[in-house]
Amino acid sequence: MPNAKRTPSGVLSGVLGLVGLSAVAGLLVTAAVTPAIAMSGAAASTAISLFEGLPGYLEVDRPMEPTTIYAKDENGNDWPMATFYDQNRQPVEYDEVSHHIYDAILSSEDPRYYDHGGVDLIGTTRALLNNASGGSTQGGSSISQQYVKNVLVQQCEQEAQDDEELRECFLRHTNSEGVEGYERKLQEMRYAIAIEKEYSKDDILLGYLNIANFGGQTYGIEAAAHYYFNTSAKDVTVGQAAVLAGIVQNPNIYRIDMRDGSTVDKDGNPINSEADGYALTKNRQLYVLDRLLEDGKITQQQHDEAAAEPITPQITPTTQGCQSAGGSAYFCQYVKSVILTDEAFGDTATERAQKLQRGGLDIYTTLDMGVQAAGEAAMRDWAPSHIEGMQFGAAGVSLETQTGRILAMVQNTQFTENAEAAQQPGYSSLVYAGDRDHGGSSGFEVGSSYKLFTLIDWLEKGKSINQRLNGVKREFRGMTSCGQPTGQGTGQIGNYGGNRGYYGTPLQFTRDSLNTGYLAMAEQLDICDINKVAERMGVTLADGGSVTDQNVPYDVLGSKNIAPIDMAAAYAAVANGGVRCEPIAIDRVVDSDGVEQPVPEPNCEKVIEPNIAATAAHVLQSVMQRGGTGVASNPGDGTPLIGKTGTHEDDQTFMVESSTKVATAVWVGNSNSVQENGRWVRKSMSRQWANGIQLSQIRHRIAPALQGAANAKYGGDPFPTADRTLLVTPMADLPDVTGQTIEEATRILNNAGFDVRVGDPVAGDKPEGTVQTQEPGAGRVATGTTVTINPSNGQGVRVPNVSGASLAAALGTLQSAGLDPARGACSEADGAGSGKATGSSPAADELVAPGTRVTVDYQAEKCGGGGNGNGGGNGNGDDD
Description:
alpha+beta
């Protein structure tokens, strides 16, 4: 209330009132004891002392006011998303109230208001004498006294912890019986005189109209005019003003929003209803109209017209809570949860709840209605609020990577906080994108989107994204957890589409989301370390637990229940050079006096090194490009994107993607199990359809809509260049496995990090079935190289070395070895005689099958002559 001084005449009136009350106080207190001694001098003296000893100053606090949550609409205007209140009140200025209301209040409640100094001695004395003599009970309170009473009730209610304490506040400050009642009246008088010294008459009158109750949760003249007549306090008619002035006198009896009656008669029958024309309120209205006419405030015609017109309310409720936020209701609920849990809004849960319901705050949120609208449209088009036979859910959230500001939060269900309605299909109060503390959700298994943390751990251990690993489907038994063997295998983990896996690199495994490839990576890491990376990047279980509380091999594939918003923030950290920003929903808060209030502090910290983030981004970009599992969620607008898909057991699906500016996470799946044939089950996302597409593909409709809208507004830069040291193809020692059995050779090569291909048997001198040859041979080669091994057939013949022997001897030696000798090329040389062998083909010491043709090259004095010789040579230097 403005700190405006009273006029000199008002001050004088207040002083006279204070003097007069010294006498009246005796009458008031002694009347409380017994009318028989009301005028005794001793009682009067005691009363004067009591009055003068009462507190003389009342701190006038701002009354309870609604808190409003705002978002910027697409034109940059503040859109009131939702309002919360214990008392629906819209304070107005003096010139925003019709003079009809001022006249009606004063004529019916305090006609000498501008003449007395806070207490109407005439009215008070008349009421006192009438009450003491057994007449009808009269209040006699001035507007200033009524204002004081309302202020005291408000101050008490603002400290109340529950409904019982609220009722006690009302009773304590409205009690008019016995000694306590008279003491209360005296205190009101004392305070009334004091505030009239401090404030102007107009200010007090306006303060009263802004604080007074008009029935139920409706407080203040503006809210009352809107609620009962769908108009403003400035535009009410004479008849409406008289009704509102009448309601103030007994709000919960004269209220006109209860069509079946606001009270009952002595027989228990409802009265003051639509059926009886709101008879009690009508009588009070007529009383007010009579007073207005008597005071000359209205004409006879105005009086008669208003009196003849029936009371016809146009009840216009002000919906409070997030239900009024439409498609943004779940974001609103997230904001509400922040207010109720963050200590920026109070040290205790009670303080925070009171700030929300009574604090009169204007809360300006981070929501971007352009991005939000695109997400809402996609959700409406593709994700039904309910699918028969399953608990179907979908949610999406977008964050600004460099600040953590939540730009959008969408959900498929209809919002309700009504417990009964929430049990109906397609309705929910849970915020699926949030966690237990921010919307009550228990999160969802995130599937392969959790592979991000294995990738980060891989890079932080200095391992290359081009290292070749055995990603073939198999049981993985070599994993450790917190430095100890897990003591369990993984079983035959499958891949999407029945893929048997392959030898490949982390880059390829990420692009294809190959489960067996990532398990191969995890074999060289530690499960605890992987989960610690997730924890460091801000990921928790949605129920508040730590992702490191349990560490099992299946964690690599995303079996933990996590909130989508946590996954969005983790990928945003990669896109933001390794700096993670805690998601925030509130930009600023302003109190009812326009003073900025504390808000949750932005919290951004480096969680991974920039070179690790850049290299991870290099890998994750492949997911969003041709051939990657996330390409269907790429809006195709040219903005560089990273991303990762996730599917858990075909009942939960995720898509997380990010530009350098905005990250988006979308979940579509089973929000809960359903009972079927006595079992609790969750339905397949790939075998059920809605709106013409598989449920598993709905994520690829919502995610690009959100990300595309964000890209259009916020853009996105190229990601930094990957760390070259993490791109090199690492080398390893390839062991010699010749002579080993095929099984043993395969084991040795696999353990060394090499792929193995078993070729056809070859002629060999090794025992049959053992490795005769390997390609490449032992030495330093790239890790993951495919090594071809050929088993020996045990029947190989090594070609004898015949060089230097006579041609005839050479041919004979070969024939004796079981080979098929033949002359080869001849070259003339002096002294060579009839022929000397210079070499063979196949060459000496090569392993060949029995009967293999071996040609002998030789020198002779003269080529072209001679007979066939041994071995069937034709003597002309040509092969058969």
